[in-house]
Design brief:
It is a single chain. This protein is α/β, with parallel strands linked by helices and 353 residues long. It has a domain of 107 residues. The strands form 2 sheets. Strands 1, 2, 3, 4, 5, 6, 7, 10, 11 and 12 form a 10-stranded mixed β-sheet that branches. The protein has a two-stranded antiparallel ribbon with strand order 8-9. A hairpin with a 4-residue loop joins strand 6 and strand 7. Helix 9 runs antiparallel to helix 10, helix 9 runs parallel beside helix 11 and helix 10 packs parallel to helix 14.
Length: 353
């Protein structure tokens, strides 16, 4: 009777669990992630598992486990191809339209038992709060509490709690709770991005529509960062730079785009130079290709720009943005690399005598 009553008074939350060859790539970690959902203490939970073009037996494995435990109602959506992070999550969200909240969860995140309950409790207190994330504890012991954004669109990770509850510019899509109404109101995730920066774009559009984004540090989850694609994957560099161009063109006020893009171009060139000096050629090639493809595909961002809901003056939003990356940091790094390279060259010359 008590469970029935709690289900009636607590808003329905749909967990959108996006999977892509999760069982073969993550093994026991994915099993722990799934278990953390099943053992969560939120009383009115609904699970949507999206098989985003998986080639292994992830979906059948999940279905077998969920049917065996029978703890929460679930739906499984099997997609015939990989629609990207945003595309897969969008299709899962459509199945959960009747829920008051959507909780987007990556397959490499393990929730603490009361994580969802704490997030729902805090978001229910403020109708203008569009999205909230827990404190994500990384495998190396560091934390991720969302990020600030520079005027050029580059993120600055918040690695410690500023307060128990505080505003951030964007929340991580690895564990993001948002209101279903707002999600569809601002246009869902941008599927053209395909991978990376989707969460930045979504939170940016929430803010343009007049909503807030925050982190609740008392709600916690563990995140095995980039476990699905692997660490140091060149795909990250490619999509990061391509998508950042599109985000600037899509979300910024037209009068600010030339100035912000010029600064981003300078930052990109400095990052590429440092990458070359570090002899990280694969990373450099990925960045250059991402930047060039971003420029070639500007029409994509221009078309998507028409669908952005704008109720907040960008002058107000710019007050939240951080300055461009400190050029002094680049100069210091550049000189350090140059000094190391020069010392190495001198060492080689001396060996010949």
């Amino acid at each position: 009777m008590c469970d029935w009553f709690m289900n009636r008074i607590m808003p329905k939350v749909s967990v959108i669990l996006l999977t892509y060859n999760s069982k073969s790539k993550l093994s026991h970690f994915f099993n722990n992630s799934l278990t953390s959902i099943l053992l969560n203490n939120y009383p009115n939970l609904h699970l949507v598992v999206v098989g985003n073009g998986s080639k292994d037996d992830t979906v059948s494995y999940v279905k077998e486990r969920l049917e065996k435990f029978g703890i929460i109602p679930f739906e499984i959506l099997m997609l015939n191809k990989n629609y990207g992070w945003g595309g897969g999550n969008n299709r899962g969200a459509i199945l959960a339209k009747n829920s008051e909240f959507l909780f987007f969860l990556n397959d490499d995140v393990i929730l603490e038992k009361d994580c969802i309950l704490k997030l729902v409790t805090i978001i229910n207190k403020d109708a203008r709060l569009g999205a909230v994330q827990p404190m994500l504890m990384n495998e190396d012991g560091t934390a991720f509490c969302g990020a600030d954004l520079s005027i050029t669109g580059l993120p600055s990770a918040i690695t410690s709690s500023r307060e128990l509850f505080f505003e951030i510019f964007h929340a991580s899509g690895a564990a993001l709770l948002t209101r279903t109404k707002y999600f569809f109101e601002v246009g869902m995730f941008d599927e053209s991005l395909f991978l990376y920066r989707d969460d930045v774009d979504y939170c940016w559009r929430l803010r343009l529509a007049g909503y807030k984004v925050a982190c609740l540090s008392t709600a916690k989850a563990r995140h095995y960062v980039s476990a699905t694609l692997g660490k140091h994957n060149p795909l990250f560099e490619y999509y990061f730079f391509r998508n950042n161009i599109w985000l600037l063109v899509k979300n910024c006020d037209i009068k600010y785009i030339p100035f912000k893009f010029f600064l981003f171009l300078i930052e990109t060139l400095m990052i590429i130079v440092i990458s070359l000096l570090s002899k990280d050629y694969l990373r450099t090639m990925s960045m250059v290709k991402g930047f060039l493809d971003g420029m070639k595909g500007l029409n994509v961002a221009v078309n998507n720009r028409k669908r952005v809901k704008r109720t907040v003056n960008e002058n107000e939003l710019n007050k939240m943005l951080k300055p461009s990356i400190d050029i002094r940091l680049f100069i210091f790094t550049f000189l350090s690399l140059f000094k190391a390279a020069r010392a190495k060259l001198i060492g080689r010359i001396l060996q010949n005598y």
